[in-house]
Design goal:
seven-stranded mixed sheet, Aspartate Aminotransferase, domain 2, five-stranded mixed sheet, binds pyridoxal-5'-phosphate, globular
């Protein structure tokens, strides 16, 4: 050691690598003592090794060797990042209600409590308490879903992509599925209808054109290999102008006359009537079934407002085939999600969804209440904040271009400064995400839990102060 130190002092210019301490020496630096309660020695040593490797790489590029103090700081910094969960709560001030990148639907208090209760201990997940023997996890959701939608049978899996994949695999593998060209779409996040069909082992037969598909297009495509007609709700875009698509009822009549089934991928699967809130009509699963769909698939965490899940409703014999398929086990729903979905569905059955399910509470929040909160935020901040009219978006691929009138807090300024304020907001604790539109950063109270109002105002004050420097 003495020799090492001696070398460092006498010949730093020739041998800058020698200026770097050993892993052990860095790991036992007194400045790293605060880590002792949080991380075992081998984790601290690993962090020290990583920091030293980077320092060596920097020295190799001709930069000066960092001091031991700087290295210790770097280890502390890295430890902070590594030891804290990377997934954490964020305040969504974007005004996009079902925001896929921000975790989609927030859950109701009851759904959270139900999730926590089954996560904490044991449950009757697959145990029939009456008979004292093995039961099925599916019973907790099936009758509730059937009661709410009038479906004969129901099955719930991991997400809607899995629901569609399972339906196509179980019913159409090795056969043809007819889809309108205007519906062979990409939903986002890698979910493309043609890819899912290929994965299921079914063959895609595209009919019609991007903007116009007629009943005769489906008719002409049906052959001995056809298993199903698939309708996909084109949820994240809209084709306007010279368009034609075939109503589900007509697709179902044709399919049934030829002994085929109609599978309807609804995407959002909204149980309530969206037109009550000034939004366009969003097809509901119960409407699809009424129009003749044999199976309807939709997400649990979009407009339903529950946990991630994929719900399949429809004909009992078909749902049974899905349930018995080996893929069903691979995409099954876990107990915490079953608990949360059950609690969410109970809100609908009790007629309290608008008050209890956060997604619907946000959609239904009166404009005057949003405005009152935006004004309160603006008062707390002073200039340059002002209140402006805008629109909140439903998101989650549902109701594209649709919005609910809202009031936002707008912080106007030049582009680079706004980008910096937005960055500071995202990097704060808690992180706040807004949106920049033209000349202003906009923060929409509609998607912010009122309990987070104070935290949001504090975060914005801090971000404005930091960005001003
Ligand atoms: C969102 C969506 C999906 C995928 O659902 P996940 O629950 O995200 O797997 C599939 N189809 C349509 C039409 C959708 O909108």
């Amino acid at each position: 050691m003495a020799c090492y130190n001696g070398l460092r002092r006498t010949m730093p210019a020739e041998s800058p690598f020698r200026a770097l301490p050993s892993v052990d020496r860095l790991a036992s630096d007194p400045r790293l003592r605060p880590l002792r309660g949080d991380a075992p020695p081998q984790v601290v040593a690993q962090l020290a090794r990583e920091v030293l490797a980077e320092a060596r790489a920097a020295v190799a590029q001709g930069r000066p060797a960092p001091s031991q103090e700087q290295l210790a700081e770097a280890v502390l910094h890295r430890a902070q990042a590594v030891l804290r969960p990377s997934l954490r709560p964020v305040i969504n001030a974007t005004g996009v209600i079902v925001h896929t990148n921000l975790g989609r639907a927030p859950l109701s208090e009851e759904a959270i409590a139900a999730m926590e209760a089954v996560a904490r201990g044991y449950s009757n997940l697959e145990f029939d308490l009456e008979a004292g023997e093995r039961g099925s996890r599916h019973v907790h959701l099936e009758s509730l879903l059937c009661r709410l939608t009038g479906a004969e049978a129901a099955l719930v899996v991991n997400n809607n992509a899995a629901a569609v994949l399972l339906a196509l695999t179980a019913l159409c593998q090795g056969r043809e599925v007819v889809v309108s060209r205007g519906q062979a779409v990409e939903i986002g996040g890698g979910f493309r209808i043609p890819d899912i069909l290929r994965q299921s082992g079914a063959r895609l037969v595209e009919v019609g054109t991007t903007n116009r598909t007629y009943l005769r297009d489906y008719e002409e495509a049906i052959g001995p290999e056809t298993a199903a007609l698939l309708r996909v709700h084109t949820s994240n875009f809209r084709i306007v102008g010279f368009t034609h698509s075939v109503p589900l009822r007509e697709m179902a009549e044709l399919a049934h006359a030829r002994g085929l089934v109609v599978i309807d991928d609804l995407g959002s699967g909204c149980l309530l009537d969206t037109t009550r809130f000034g939004l366009a009509y969003e097809p509901r699963p119960q409407d699809s079934l009424g129009e003749g769909a044999d199976l309807v698939c939709f997400s649990g965490d979009k407009l339903l407002g529950g946990p991630q899940a994929g719900i399949v409703l429809g004909r009992r014999d078909l749902v049974e085939r899905l349930r018995r398929h080996p893929l069903a086990r691979a995409v099954r729903l876990d107990k915490a999600s079953i608990a949360a979905l059950q609690a969410t569905l109970l809100h609908y059955l009790r007629g309290e969804a608008l008050e209890k399910v956060p997604v619907w509470r946000m959609i239904a929040m009166p404009l005057r209440e949003v405005e009152r909160r935006a004004r309160r935020w603006a008062r707390a901040l002073g200039s340059p904040a002002q209140v402006r009219p805008s629109r909140s978006m439903v998101g989650g691929g549902s109701l594209p271009e649709e919005g609910v009138p809202t009031r936002v807090l707008a912080v106007a300024g030049d582009g680079a400064w706004l980008v910096e304020v937005a960055r500071r907001l995202r990097l704060g604790e808690p992180p706040v995400v807004g949106r920049i539109e033209a000349d202003a950063l906009l923060l929409d109270p509609r998607t912010v839990d009122p309990r987070d109002d104070a935290a949001l105002v504090a975060a914005l004050k801090a971000a404005l102060a930091a960005a001003a420097v």
